């Protein structure tokens, strides 16, 4: 048994990591009954034959208002995912319940990926904890409000897709998962580039490649057609999803006026993605700090602060396989698109849009590390990083009162 051979320091480290996990779970249940449940409300509209949604009484933020009706502009798949559950159990089946189910699926998938890459049982748990608490994903999984819920759907779906890539590579299933990504957050769908590279480098006749790709393309085609119909039915335009005209509020609208996507946004986004640090909490005595001493701004912390463990992924660049190169291509393309987007994300813990490629970074990290065991330093880094993140999220709740 592992625990019979573990040394005292590592045992204390495991206990500490378990305690941090309990705090993270507590934050989730504090946020469980979120009032920002746009996808749940949209699901109810779907069940009643409508495409518009009843707006929140207290907040009209992010809706598209057309002909006196309110439309939710984000991809509809999270609402579709809720459909069978709300059909059976009614509107009481909220986003928080679905998010809890997704977190369990995500946890098991991350753990299985680590085991497939031949890490031992306890170190696979460490690696799973690194992703869930030592990355920007922690700010998403502890809060089921609509924006984060959509990203939890994305992260879970992409992780399942990567798990399929690492195992059976059934193209029909991969196509279904890719279709779900496109219908949730299109920027997470660049994983298709890796699939194209894999098919290209595979040594088999062209006709066989074409036959193999058809099952992948069918669900993707259905998803794209459904999205275009969804756009046209709401806004009279096949490619208009509402992102150019939704009510984003005073902080964000001036940024969008520079262009939905523009190279002008890269310096700002680069700062918040990679350089933004914590802010001090001072007393009324000059620069004297008071508890909880530091906080994060609503624009979030940099990826380097939130997810230092995943710098290990860079080691995988030494490997020369076309598969790993294609995964890095997906990360670079996704990141470039996000950096050129008009905002880095708002009311967030870390750069949450990076969740669109965090599962890929997780897999690249697994390839980069020495197996089957993590080093003592790597385990401590995971624990400290998780503690730092959960501490800031916990104290953020305290500061909000």
From TrEMBL:
Record keywords, A-Z: Membrane, Transmembrane, Transmembrane helix
Coiled-coil stretches: none
Domain of life: Bacteria
Membrane-spanning segments: 12-32, 93-113, 125-142, 172-201, 213-233, 296-314, 326-343, 349-368, 380-399
Keyword Transmembrane attached: yes
Protein name, UniProt field: Glycosyltransferase RgtA/B/C/D-like domain-containing protein
Species whose genome carries this gene: Candidatus Daviesbacteria bacterium RIFCSPHIGHO2_01_FULL_40_11
